[in-house]
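## retry 2 of 3
previous attempt timed out at serialization; input unchanged, resubmitting
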Amino acid sequence: MNRLQYLLRRLLLVIPTFFGITVACFLLTRLLPGGPVEMKMAQMRGFGGGGEAGGGANATLVSEDMKKELERQFGFNQPMWKQYFNWAFRDHLGMTMKSYEYPDRTAWELIRRRLPVSVWFGVVSFLLSYLICIPLGIAKALRHGSPFDFVSSAIVFSAYAVPPFAVGMILKMCLSGTVDGLWNIFPIGGFESDAAVEAGGWTLFWDRAYHMVLPVTAYVMTSFALLTIMMKNSLMEQMSADYVRTVLAKGATRRRAIWCHALRNALIPIATGFGSVLGVLFAGSMIIETLFEIPGMGQLSLNALVGHDYAVFMAMLVMTASIQLFGNLISDFCYMLIDPRIHFN
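## retry succeeded, writing output
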């Protein structure tokens, strides 16, 4: 019952947290310059400035007259609380608002087409990161000070020191045939081929996996160093704890003391990081997706940010916040399973 109460209370905390995030983001987009009204006015000035007989003064008068009309069209002439209410409930957190860059599509229609790509990319990267980091961190902790520990640390920190876009560029040059004389093994970019889409089934699955090799490798190589070192240090700390020495003193083998007692407590710091990792992965990587021309959430958010696409940008903030909060709930649940002593304060 205590576990259920803990989860319910953590779930209830999501509501005010989500409300605070959306209010803060909404106010920022309203107060900062570069909104849809300013973008429309800039377009009107650029379009009509050269042919206006009255010169700059008339253009300014026209812009001032049109500004109020634009504010009325976008609802900016209403009180701030009413603007937020309309955006949150009438526009369903901005999901039904029309995109500025693509007037014939809503923000949700654009996100819905990009979300499966980022989910695929995020799930694969997430699983590979943890499937590599946890065993590698355990192996490093059990072989601390050995040649394996030194060599693996050198490789891990060397990969961590190189930026993701640099790793991606090197992989593309060496394995995608962009440089003459080097291997042409993997696609230069994209998420899937047209022939695989028509075939469907396992053909499409393996084609997507084939396209994801380089971007996932570039992302994982530069992101798993922290998890590996965290796993190693956490396990080493638990191995030197008093309760492990007590287990050994009672006649248990070192193997049993590590795998049945120390490892479970060592996984607690790893479990608490699920939320932040999920938020980053499923929101997409702007750099990796742009470099490999992957039509995912990261590329969409970058285009919305550069193009001042207010509707899509706000919807992306809502999606990212939701994913982050969901990841935090998973972290709390995993933390509760690993450590039964957890209680809500």
